[in-house]
Amino acid sequence: MTGRAGKPQEETTLDALEAELRGLPPPEPLPGLEAKLLAAAPVAKTESVLGRRRRWLALAAVGAAVAAAALIIAYTFVPEKASSEEPPVRAALLNDTSPAYIVRTVIAAHSEETRPWDILPPFPD
Amino acid sequence: MGTQVRWWQEGRLLSRLHAGDPKACGEFVRTYYGAVYRFLLHLGGGTHQAEDLTQEVFASAWAGLAGFEGRGSLGTWLHRIAYYKFLDRHRRRQSAPNLGDGLGSADQCSSREEEPAERLMVDERARQLHAAVQALKPAERAVIVLHYFQDLSFRQMASVLDQPVGTVKWRTGQALRRLKALLNGKV
Protein backbone atom coordinates (compact mmCIF):
# COMPACT_ATOMS: atom_id res chain seq x y z
CA MET A 1 0.00 0.00 0.00
CA THR A 2 1.36 3.42 -0.84
CA GLY A 3 0.71 6.77 0.80
CA ARG A 4 -0.24 10.02 -0.88
CA ALA A 5 3.44 10.88 -1.51
CA GLY A 6 4.16 7.45 -2.93
CA LYS A 7 6.23 6.31 0.06
CA PRO A 8 5.58 2.91 1.57
CA GLN A 9 2.45 3.21 3.63
CA GLU A 10 3.03 3.04 7.35
CA GLU A 11 0.21 1.96 9.57
CA THR A 12 -2.62 4.40 9.19
CA THR A 13 -3.44 6.19 12.41
CA LEU A 14 -7.01 6.96 13.31
CA ASP A 15 -6.49 10.73 13.06
CA ALA A 16 -4.83 10.42 9.67
CA LEU A 17 -7.56 8.12 8.50
CA GLU A 18 -10.23 10.57 9.64
CA ALA A 19 -8.46 13.37 7.78
CA GLU A 20 -8.17 11.24 4.66
CA LEU A 21 -11.83 10.31 4.76
CA ARG A 22 -12.87 13.92 5.15
CA GLY A 23 -10.55 14.98 2.35
CA LEU A 24 -11.90 12.60 -0.27
CA PRO A 25 -13.43 14.51 -3.17
CA PRO A 26 -17.18 13.98 -3.37
CA PRO A 27 -18.44 12.13 -6.43
CA GLU A 28 -20.39 14.18 -8.92
CA PRO A 29 -24.05 13.31 -9.42
CA LEU A 30 -24.96 11.77 -12.75
CA PRO A 31 -25.79 14.32 -15.43
CA GLY A 32 -29.49 14.58 -15.99
CA LEU A 33 -30.47 13.49 -12.48
CA GLU A 34 -31.35 17.03 -11.42
CA ALA A 35 -33.58 17.47 -14.48
CA LYS A 36 -35.34 14.18 -13.77
CA LEU A 37 -35.97 15.16 -10.16
CA LEU A 38 -37.19 18.62 -11.15
CA ALA A 39 -39.53 17.10 -13.72
CA ALA A 40 -40.93 14.79 -11.06
CA ALA A 41 -41.53 17.64 -8.60
CA PRO A 42 -45.30 17.65 -8.06
CA VAL A 43 -45.77 21.39 -8.48
CA ALA A 44 -49.28 21.16 -9.91
CA LYS A 45 -50.39 18.66 -7.29
CA THR A 46 -48.92 20.70 -4.48
CA GLU A 47 -50.58 23.83 -5.84
CA SER A 48 -53.95 22.18 -6.20
CA VAL A 49 -53.85 20.77 -2.69
CA LEU A 50 -52.75 24.09 -1.33
CA GLY A 51 -55.23 25.92 -3.54
CA ARG A 52 -57.98 23.83 -2.02
CA ARG A 53 -56.63 24.56 1.41
CA ARG A 54 -56.54 28.27 0.59
CA ARG A 55 -60.11 28.14 -0.66
CA TRP A 56 -61.21 26.54 2.59
CA LEU A 57 -59.29 29.14 4.53
CA ALA A 58 -60.95 31.93 2.53
CA LEU A 59 -64.38 30.40 3.14
CA ALA A 60 -63.65 30.08 6.84
CA ALA A 61 -62.48 33.70 6.94
CA VAL A 62 -65.66 34.90 5.19
CA GLY A 63 -67.79 32.84 7.57
CA ALA A 64 -65.96 34.24 10.56
CA ALA A 65 -66.40 37.79 9.24
CA VAL A 66 -70.14 37.28 8.71
CA ALA A 67 -70.51 35.81 12.20
CA ALA A 68 -68.56 38.71 13.69
CA ALA A 69 -70.70 41.23 11.82
CA ALA A 70 -73.89 39.54 13.03
CA LEU A 71 -72.61 39.62 16.60
CA ILE A 72 -71.70 43.30 16.33
CA ILE A 73 -75.13 44.11 14.91
CA ALA A 74 -76.82 42.11 17.65
CA TYR A 75 -74.88 43.81 20.42
CA THR A 76 -75.08 47.26 18.89
CA PHE A 77 -78.74 47.51 17.87
CA VAL A 78 -80.79 44.95 19.71
CA PRO A 79 -80.01 46.15 23.27
CA GLU A 80 -80.75 49.76 22.24
CA LYS A 81 -84.09 48.73 20.84
CA ALA A 82 -84.86 46.75 23.96
CA SER A 83 -83.90 49.63 26.25
CA SER A 84 -86.12 52.04 24.32
CA GLU A 85 -89.09 49.92 25.15
CA GLU A 86 -90.55 50.35 28.62
CA PRO A 87 -91.00 47.30 30.83
CA PRO A 88 -94.56 45.90 30.47
CA VAL A 89 -95.78 46.94 33.98
CA ARG A 90 -94.46 50.44 33.63
CA ALA A 91 -95.95 50.73 30.15
CA ALA A 92 -99.30 49.58 31.47
CA LEU A 93 -99.18 52.12 34.28
CA LEU A 94 -98.31 54.88 31.85
CA ASN A 95 -101.17 53.85 29.62
CA ASP A 96 -103.61 53.66 32.52
CA THR A 97 -102.76 57.15 33.74
CA SER A 98 -102.46 58.89 30.41
CA PRO A 99 -105.24 61.40 29.61
CA ALA A 100 -105.94 59.73 26.33
CA TYR A 101 -106.49 56.41 28.09
CA ILE A 102 -108.79 57.90 30.70
CA VAL A 103 -110.86 59.77 28.15
CA ARG A 104 -111.04 56.73 25.95
CA THR A 105 -111.96 54.47 28.84
CA VAL A 106 -114.55 56.81 30.26
CA ILE A 107 -116.14 57.32 26.88
CA ALA A 108 -116.11 53.61 26.24
CA ALA A 109 -117.67 52.86 29.59
CA HIS A 110 -120.36 55.49 29.19
CA SER A 111 -121.19 55.13 25.61
CA GLU A 112 -124.85 55.84 26.26
CA GLU A 113 -126.29 59.34 26.52
CA THR A 114 -126.04 60.82 29.97
CA ARG A 115 -129.32 60.55 31.74
CA PRO A 116 -130.43 63.39 34.02
CA TRP A 117 -131.16 61.08 36.95
CA ASP A 118 -127.71 59.80 36.78
CA ILE A 119 -126.15 63.19 37.43
CA LEU A 120 -128.87 64.99 39.37
CA PRO A 121 -129.25 64.49 43.08
CA PRO A 122 -132.10 62.22 44.03
CA PHE A 123 -135.51 63.63 44.67
CA PRO A 124 -136.20 64.54 48.25
CA ASP A 125 -138.41 62.04 49.99
CA MET B 1 -23.98 16.97 4.68
CA GLY B 2 -22.17 18.61 1.82
CA THR B 3 -24.46 21.59 1.52
CA GLN B 4 -25.10 22.94 4.96
CA VAL B 5 -28.25 24.99 5.01
CA ARG B 6 -28.90 27.33 7.89
CA TRP B 7 -31.98 26.56 9.94
CA TRP B 8 -33.67 29.86 9.15
CA GLN B 9 -33.10 29.42 5.43
CA GLU B 10 -34.50 25.94 5.75
CA GLY B 11 -37.47 27.24 7.71
CA ARG B 12 -38.24 29.74 4.96
CA LEU B 13 -37.84 27.06 2.30
CA LEU B 14 -40.19 24.75 4.18
CA SER B 15 -42.82 27.50 4.51
CA ARG B 16 -42.59 28.18 0.79
CA LEU B 17 -42.87 24.47 0.02
CA HIS B 18 -45.96 24.21 2.21
CA ALA B 19 -47.37 27.24 0.41
CA GLY B 20 -46.90 25.49 -2.94
CA ASP B 21 -44.27 27.85 -4.32
CA PRO B 22 -43.01 26.18 -7.55
CA LYS B 23 -39.62 27.91 -7.24
CA ALA B 24 -39.21 26.42 -3.77
CA CYS B 25 -39.69 22.92 -5.20
CA GLY B 26 -36.78 23.53 -7.57
CA GLU B 27 -34.68 25.00 -4.80
CA PHE B 28 -35.43 22.00 -2.59
CA VAL B 29 -34.27 19.58 -5.28
CA ARG B 30 -31.16 21.56 -6.20
CA THR B 31 -30.12 22.02 -2.56
CA TYR B 32 -30.38 18.42 -1.47
CA TYR B 33 -30.22 16.03 -4.39
CA GLY B 34 -26.42 16.00 -4.57
CA ALA B 35 -26.03 15.07 -0.91
CA VAL B 36 -28.71 12.39 -1.13
CA TYR B 37 -27.16 10.90 -4.27
CA ARG B 38 -23.65 10.90 -2.75
CA PHE B 39 -24.93 9.28 0.43
CA LEU B 40 -26.61 6.50 -1.53
CA LEU B 41 -23.61 6.05 -3.79
CA HIS B 42 -21.27 5.75 -0.79
CA LEU B 43 -23.60 3.25 0.82
CA GLY B 44 -23.09 1.01 -2.19
CA GLY B 45 -24.93 -0.54 -5.08
CA GLY B 46 -23.52 1.58 -7.87
CA THR B 47 -24.45 4.73 -9.69
CA HIS B 48 -27.64 3.42 -11.23
CA GLN B 49 -29.01 2.20 -7.93
CA ALA B 50 -28.03 5.50 -6.30
CA GLU B 51 -29.81 7.42 -9.05
CA ASP B 52 -32.85 5.20 -8.83
CA LEU B 53 -33.03 5.47 -5.05
CA THR B 54 -32.50 9.24 -5.16
CA GLN B 55 -35.61 9.50 -7.30
CA GLU B 56 -37.49 7.27 -4.88
CA VAL B 57 -36.30 9.38 -1.95
CA PHE B 58 -37.62 12.57 -3.54
CA ALA B 59 -40.89 10.87 -4.49
CA SER B 60 -41.33 9.88 -0.84
CA ALA B 61 -40.32 13.36 0.25
CA TRP B 62 -42.97 14.98 -1.97
CA ALA B 63 -45.56 12.58 -0.60
CA GLY B 64 -44.60 13.23 3.02
CA LEU B 65 -43.73 16.90 2.85
CA ALA B 66 -47.16 18.06 4.04
CA GLY B 67 -46.67 16.07 7.23
CA PHE B 68 -43.10 17.27 7.83
CA GLU B 69 -43.26 19.83 10.62
CA GLY B 70 -39.63 20.88 10.60
CA ARG B 71 -38.61 19.45 13.97
CA GLY B 72 -35.40 18.15 12.40
CA SER B 73 -33.64 19.54 9.36
CA LEU B 74 -34.80 18.77 5.84
CA GLY B 75 -31.36 17.33 5.07
CA THR B 76 -31.48 14.94 8.01
CA TRP B 77 -35.02 13.92 7.07
CA LEU B 78 -33.92 13.16 3.48
CA HIS B 79 -30.92 11.18 4.72
CA ARG B 80 -33.24 9.16 6.93
CA ILE B 81 -35.56 8.38 4.01
CA ALA B 82 -32.54 7.52 1.85
CA TYR B 83 -31.06 5.21 4.47
CA TYR B 84 -34.28 3.25 4.87
CA LYS B 85 -34.76 3.09 1.11
CA PHE B 86 -31.23 1.69 0.83
CA LEU B 87 -31.80 -0.87 3.58
CA ASP B 88 -35.05 -1.93 1.97
CA ARG B 89 -33.38 -2.37 -1.42
CA HIS B 90 -30.42 -4.12 0.19
CA ARG B 91 -32.66 -6.56 2.01
CA ARG B 92 -34.62 -7.29 -1.15
CA ARG B 93 -31.61 -7.86 -3.33
CA GLN B 94 -29.08 -9.10 -0.78
CA SER B 95 -26.48 -8.28 -3.38
CA ALA B 96 -22.86 -7.49 -2.73
CA PRO B 97 -21.95 -3.83 -3.19
CA ASN B 98 -20.87 -3.09 -6.74
CA LEU B 99 -17.60 -1.22 -6.65
CA GLY B 100 -16.91 -1.18 -10.37
CA ASP B 101 -20.03 0.73 -11.15
CA GLY B 102 -19.68 3.30 -8.43
CA LEU B 103 -16.93 4.80 -6.35
CA GLY B 104 -14.22 2.43 -7.46
CA SER B 105 -13.93 4.29 -10.75
CA ALA B 106 -11.18 6.85 -10.64
CA ASP B 107 -12.99 9.51 -12.64
CA GLN B 108 -15.57 10.05 -9.93
CA CYS B 109 -13.10 10.30 -7.07
CA SER B 110 -10.40 12.53 -8.42
CA SER B 111 -9.80 16.20 -8.42
CA ARG B 112 -9.50 17.42 -11.98
CA GLU B 113 -6.79 20.06 -11.36
CA GLU B 114 -4.05 17.65 -10.24
CA GLU B 115 -1.14 16.48 -12.37
CA PRO B 116 -1.54 13.02 -13.92
CA ALA B 117 1.12 11.22 -11.78
CA GLU B 118 -0.06 12.73 -8.53
CA ARG B 119 -3.64 12.22 -9.60
CA LEU B 120 -2.97 8.52 -10.17
CA MET B 121 -1.60 8.16 -6.64
CA VAL B 122 -4.45 10.08 -5.12
CA ASP B 123 -6.88 8.05 -7.19
CA GLU B 124 -5.25 4.85 -6.02
CA ARG B 125 -5.48 5.88 -2.39
CA ALA B 126 -9.06 7.06 -2.83
CA ARG B 127 -9.91 3.77 -4.50
CA GLN B 128 -8.37 1.89 -1.57
CA LEU B 129 -10.31 3.96 0.92
CA HIS B 130 -13.57 3.51 -0.93
CA ALA B 131 -12.93 -0.21 -1.32
CA ALA B 132 -12.26 -0.51 2.42
CA VAL B 133 -15.44 1.45 3.21
CA GLN B 134 -17.42 -0.83 0.92
CA ALA B 135 -15.94 -3.86 2.70
CA LEU B 136 -17.48 -2.72 5.99
CA LYS B 137 -20.80 -4.07 7.15
CA PRO B 138 -23.75 -1.89 6.04
CA ALA B 139 -24.32 -0.50 9.55
CA GLU B 140 -20.60 0.37 9.93
CA ARG B 141 -20.48 1.83 6.45
CA ALA B 142 -23.50 4.00 7.19
CA VAL B 143 -21.92 5.69 10.20
CA ILE B 144 -18.63 6.28 8.37
CA VAL B 145 -20.40 7.72 5.35
CA LEU B 146 -22.73 9.91 7.38
CA HIS B 147 -20.00 11.31 9.62
CA TYR B 148 -16.99 11.65 7.34
CA PHE B 149 -18.45 11.96 3.85
CA GLN B 150 -21.79 13.63 4.52
CA ASP B 151 -20.43 15.70 7.43
CA LEU B 152 -23.38 15.03 9.73
CA SER B 153 -23.05 15.58 13.47
CA PHE B 154 -23.60 12.68 15.87
CA ARG B 155 -26.95 14.17 16.83
CA GLN B 156 -28.05 14.32 13.19
CA MET B 157 -26.77 10.80 12.65
CA ALA B 158 -28.77 9.62 15.64
CA SER B 159 -31.86 11.09 14.01
CA VAL B 160 -31.11 9.42 10.68
CA LEU B 161 -30.31 6.02 12.15
CA ASP B 162 -32.94 6.21 14.89
CA GLN B 163 -30.40 5.35 17.57
CA PRO B 164 -29.19 7.13 20.72
CA VAL B 165 -26.35 9.61 20.24
CA GLY B 166 -24.04 7.60 22.50
CA THR B 167 -24.60 4.45 20.50
CA VAL B 168 -23.90 6.30 17.27
CA LYS B 169 -20.62 7.70 18.66
CA TRP B 170 -19.52 4.28 19.82
CA ARG B 171 -20.43 2.66 16.51
CA THR B 172 -18.55 5.33 14.58
CA GLY B 173 -15.44 4.69 16.64
CA GLN B 174 -15.77 0.95 16.15
CA ALA B 175 -16.30 1.34 12.41
CA LEU B 176 -13.28 3.63 12.11
CA ARG B 177 -11.09 1.12 13.92
CA ARG B 178 -12.33 -1.65 11.67
CA LEU B 179 -11.69 0.48 8.60
CA LYS B 180 -8.15 1.15 9.82
CA ALA B 181 -7.60 -2.57 10.33
CA LEU B 182 -8.86 -3.25 6.80
CA LEU B 183 -6.52 -0.66 5.33
CA ASN B 184 -3.59 -1.98 7.31
CA GLY B 185 -4.34 -5.45 6.07
CA LYS B 186 -5.15 -6.83 9.49
CA VAL B 187 -8.56 -8.18 8.56
Structure description:
The complex is a heterodimer of chains A (125) and B (187). Chain A is mostly helical and 125 residues long. Helix content of chain A is 68%, strand content 0%. Chain A has helices at 14-23, 33-40, 43-84, 88-97, 99-109, 116-119. Chain B has 187 residues and is mostly helical. Helix content of chain B is 73%, strand content 0%. Chain B is built from nine helices and no strands. Chain B has helices spanning 7-18, 22-43, 46-64, 74-93, 106-109, 116-135, 138-149, 154-161, 165-183. Chain B is globular. Chain A binds chain B through residues 1-6, 11-14, 17-18, 20-22, 24-30, 33-34, 36-38, 40-43, 45-47, 49-51, and chain B through 2, 17-20, 22, 25-26, 28-30, 33-34, 37-38, 41, 47, 51, 54-55, 58-59, 62, 65-66, 102-103, 108-111, 121-122, 124-126, 128-130, 144, 148-149, 151, 176-177, 179-180, 183-185.
Seen as an oligomer or otherwise, the chain set is heterodimer
- What fraction, in percent, of the residue positions of chain B are helical? over 70%
Backbone shape of chain A? rod-shaped
Order of helices and strands of chain A: HHHHHH
- Please report the number of helical segments of chain B: 9
The counted number of beta strands of chain B is 0
Structural class of chain B: mainly alpha
Q: pLDDT below 50 for ≥5 consecutive residues: which ranges of chain A? A: 1-8
**In angstroms, what is the radius of gyration of chain B?**
17 Å
Q: How many DSSP E strands of chain A?
A: 0
Give the overall form of chain B. globular
How many helices of chain A does DSSP assign?
A: 6
Main sheet specs of chain A: none
Which two protein chains have the largest interface (Cβ within 8 Å of the partner's Cβ), and how many residues from each?
A-B, 37 and 50 residues
Average per-residue pLDDT of chain B, rounded, comes to: 82
**Helix and strand succession of chain B?**
HHHHHHHHH
C-alpha termini separation of chain B: 30 Å
Q: How far apart lie the N and C ends of chain A?
A: 160 Å
Rounded radius of gyration of chain A (Å):
50 Å
